[in-house]
Amino acid sequence: MDAPHLSDQSPEKRVRIVGSELVENYTVYIIEVKVGDHSWTVKHRYSDFHDLHEKLTVEKKIDKHLLPPKKIIGKNSKSLVEKRQKELEVYLQTLLSRFPAATPKVLSNFLHFHLYEINGIAAALAEELFHNGEQLLAAGEVFFLRPLQLYAVTQQLKLAKPTCANGDAKADLGHIMDFTCRLKYLKVPGMKKTVGTSNIEEQSLPFDLSIFKALLQIEISDCDAGQIKGLPSLKPTLATLSIHLSAGTMTEILVPEASEFAQWEPEGVDTDCPVTAIIPTWKMLTTLDMSRNFIRCIDNSVKLIPEVEFLDLSHNELSLVENLQHLYNLVHLDLSFNKLTVLECVHTKLGNVKTLNLSGNQLETLSGLSKLYSLVNLDLSRNKLAQLDEIKHISTLPCLEKLTLAENPMCIIPDYRTKVLAQFCDRASEVCLDGTTTTEKELDTVEVLKAIQKAKVAKDRMANNDKKVSDVPGQAAGGPQSSSSSLVAPPSSSSPSLSRSTCSSQGNHI
């Protein structure tokens, strides 16, 4: 069940101590915190409460006698623990009522607001970026933001509040906005389970990416496509988009606005069909990685990514190769670990592809690959290829250099490598099979196999020619007409002995 969203207004904060545990020789109190519909637990010993109180008395002038006194004798007795549990609960409730608008940082951290509550999360992120933002941007490294953090920032921007509600300039939301406007590399790792000790499910929390103005690369995983807002706003700069375990279709990522229109077309395309929307293309996107999703077909949303050179759709549920003819610049394609069984006429869709990964599918024939003339690297491992004759479909590809066939049924055939390489004829030395360069010994064997094959072809040709001669009417060997003809045939200049006999007979007659 999805956890409910936090309200746009500041929800009520509640706290109670629900139990205790004896750890070694001290007691730990289990605190349940609730903010709106979200809740989590925190564990603290009495000394933690004491440290908190000391800081609050200095910073916020809290009454020194508000915290129940420390006990030395019988501190772990059941009666004392139960009494202290109630007193500490009242203490925390009093503190929250004392600071209803802005919780002091020391109390916020004590109750783990910086991990689970939107104000605390945003404040903690802002302070981190205040201290380290410039160094992170200068280093150009990938920055990690969880969906919960992005949700907190999104919600904070909706609230009609100052960007620095608790008075701490380091926690100003402006530090986040300045950082996100300049960040180039972002990773958003979600999770399928609840966050920490809370009931918060990140997949139920929508977040807006439009705060990022300069992103070149983004990777999102374990989210729900519906919670990702503002992705099209990244089109002017984004070069690499990676989405994992988050999408059921390509459209919901590439054209999320498509659900609003009955018909759409990409900008710059002439069409006679009526359309209700013209969608801008991803002009800068050259790499799209949508591996490890739940995609069943390559839909027409690929029209919007005409500049893509690298496309990874591995580990999905594809059964057909379709619509890729729209990707004129596609060079590297990964369709491994899908449900492909046939590849008929794929050259009409993959004309310029140089690297093609088809590993882990259900292919039994290679007949559809015979015209991929630009192909350099081909991975066909872990399919159902059983017949060596299938290699003939790819043996004439002029640019093929790396071929992987491992873990196919044909691999158990004796001398499998040399029999495969022999089908490449004069190019056998140029093909790296299953990651191993062809050896001189294998090439020698290939030459023998080629010679045997040539002899077999020549023998078959002669047999066919003899069969054609024998099939001519009246020319069957041993027939009456054949015998008669041999007796009355005139002498031939190509038969010397017959010529000499004839000449001698004529001389005697004269």
Q: Could you explain how this protein is built, in words?
A:
The protein is α/β, with parallel strands linked by helices and 510 residues long. It is 30% helix and 15% strand. The protein has 12 helices and 18 strands. It has an 11-stranded parallel beta sheet with strand order 4-5-7-9-12-13-14-15-16-17-18, with no helix packed on it. A 3-stranded antiparallel beta sheet has the order 1-2-3. Strands 6-8 form a two-stranded parallel ribbon. Strand 17, helix 9 and strand 18 form a beta-alpha-beta unit. Helix 5 crosses helix 6 and helix 9 crosses helix 10. The longest helix has 31 residues. It is elongated. It starts with 12 loop residues before the first strand and ends with a helix. The N terminus and C terminus are likely disordered.
Key traits:
510 residues; eleven-stranded parallel β-sheet; 12 helices; 30% helix
Topology diagram in text:
Elements: E1 13-23, E2 26-35, E3 38-45, H1 46-59, H2 78-98, H3 105-110, H4 113-116, H5 118-139, E4 143-144, H6 147-158, H7 174-182, E5 185-189, E6 207-208, E7 217-221, E8 228-229, E9 240-244, H8 251-254, E10 264-266, E11 277-279, E12 287-289, E13 310-312, E14 332-334, E15 355-357, E16 377-379, E17 402-404, H9 416-422, E18 432-433, H10 440-470, H11 480-488, H12 496-509
Strand order of the largest sheet: 4-5-7-9-12-13-14-15-16-17-18
Structural class: alpha/beta
Rounded to an integer, what's the Rg over CA atoms? 39 Å
- Continuous helix count: 12
